[in-house]
Design brief:
The protein is mainly α. The chain has one domain. 77% of the residues lie in helices and 0% in strands. It contains eleven helices and no strands. Helix 2 crosses helix 11 and helix 7 crosses helix 8. The two termini are 18 Å apart.
């Protein structure tokens, strides 16, 4: 798998859909950052540096955690875009469509974090390797709704055998764009984030295509 082809596939999927991708990104991050920030402000007002502020920051963190499934819906929407499916901004709320889906998605996130942290306790490098191995779990979960959380993680590990380094290099290839986005005071992230996320969706599709070729 070539990184250049992955990124070209992402640009092809985003062609004539950049406006949608930017709006989707804006809405997602506005909700994810805005709701916790608003709750913190309504409860505490402006920060005072007191002990009360700490407890309210904790409350904001809890709300942020509860909104994590929103990001996975974001990933899924752009995966559908890669597949040529019709998508709309409201699709970013798909993970909230049922209590079962919501809590399973949240559980998947928490379990991958726990596994990664446990490996990181041993050494930093094993933790990074495991995080790469678990990177496809959310896509696997989306495509296989009957899978348990652990099954999704296990399948991700299997898919990533031999591809973790390529995935790592793919992520590194966006560092330059990230620096440029910071120069624009973060505005450029509205374009960079969907570009990166769509590239990850293309990567997943290529993983599955490679697996199908091997099976034949």
């Amino acid at each position: 798998m070539r990184i250049k082809e992955v990124k070209q596939g992402a640009l092809a999927a985003l062609k004539n859909r950049w406006g949608f991708a930017v709006l989707l990104t804006f809405v997602t991050y506005l909700i994810a950052a805005g709701i916790p920030g608003l709750i913190d402000f309504l409860v505490n007002g402006f920060p005072s540096g007191s002990e009360t502020e700490y407890s309210q920051s904790t409350l904001a963190n809890i709300v942020s955690l509860l909104l994590v499934p929103l990001f996975f819906s974001y990933y899924w929407v752009l995966l559908r875009l890669v597949r040529g499916e019709n998508v709309c901004v409201k699709s970013v709320f798909d993970s909230f469509s049922s209590a079962g889906l919501y809590f399973r998605t949240l559980g998947l996130y928490l379990l991958t974090i726990i596994y990664t942290v446990l490996w990181s306790i041993l050494l930093i490098i094993p933790g990074i390797i495991k995080s790469l191995a678990y990177s496809q779990a959310y896509y696997v979960f989306r495509d296989n709704p009957d899978y348990s959380v652990n099954q999704s993680i296990t399948e991700s590990r299997r898919l990533m055998n031999g591809y973790k380094w390529t995935y790592f290099l793919l992520l590194l290839s966006f560092i330059g764009w990230g620096i440029l986005s910071m120069i624009t005071l973060g505005i450029g992230l509205l374009w960079l984030v969907p570009y990166v996320t769509t590239s990850l969706g293309v990567f997943y599709e290529k993983l599955k295509a490679n697996e199908a070729e091997v099976a034949e």
